[in-house]
Amino acid sequence: MTSVKEFLVDREPTADSPGAGRFAFTDDYSVFDWGKMPDPIPGKGASLCTMGAYNFERLEAAGVPTHYRGVGADAAPLAAVDDPPRELAVDLVQVPELPFRGDGDGYDYDAFHADAGSNYLVPLEIVFRNTVPVGSSLRRRADPRDVGVDRDDWPAGPVDLPEPVVEFSTKYEEQDRYLDRAEADRIAGAADVADLEALARRVNDVVTARAADAGFVHEDGKIECASVDGDVVVADVVGTFDENRFAYGGQEVSKEVVRQHYKREHPDWVDAVSDAKARADREGVADWRGLCSASPPPLSADIVDAVADMYAAGANAYTGTDWFDAPGIDAAVDRVRDL
User: Fold this and answer.
1) Which domain holds residue 160?
2) Is the pLDDT of residue 4 over 90?
3) Which one of 82, 134, 186, 278 is most buried, by most CB atoms within 10 A?
């Protein structure tokens, strides 16, 4: 299904009825939309699954509708298992093909929705931002005053936003695009963007509150949603170190650590990715990776180990349970500060 999760189907969804299945989390990761990178991060999949289940159960307790059913093949509650899970049991909805028309016409969302039926995965990511950290794409797309920050230029460090900002981006295109509200509404189909935004804000509130209790700052994140008989529910996975950016003691604790490492240590590859995406846009093709002149170098063993400890220690601290044999969060964060 994705570069970091496998997709297990127990009951196929139909045009009229959701199905059931599981996300099986791997230890792979992706940065800059590349897909599967050269190195797995040991234990990463279990940490994401555990955090995802923990957050889904908090959302359900807060009255936020989700597609979550439990963990493992038996769809058990998280409290019922002894070891960190790797499978998230969920309701499944249809995911139609999104054709690429080419010749400057882009993607055919009319065809997508013609096959969607009454339950489908909304082809959008709904992004919420509480701060503007280093590496945030918002710095390239908006001036500080556009989002309520009283200054003319972005500073070198993170910036707190006076109110959370919600944005919409594409989900199934080869390159993510941020959308204005009108285009997001068109792409969403039967799902209303006002409902999607409201759901994202509720998720943000729940995750931000838990992060603060555990000593983290919740900087930004995203949700995906399913439309089921006209109602929207939170889908995919929520509030992990891959979907969201957190900080602890002023240090990023998320996939952003690896992203920034590649920017510092392997800028030629990062530049090659940017050039390939730009060329794909100019030539009206979907597969930019085929145009890329370089492949990502592997990480060193000590970096893989440090990032693995960050995921495990972070999951322990966020959930308040020692699921993983890992250093304390302070030690794990100190280790990744200079990567």
Assistant:
1) 5-336
2) no
3) 134
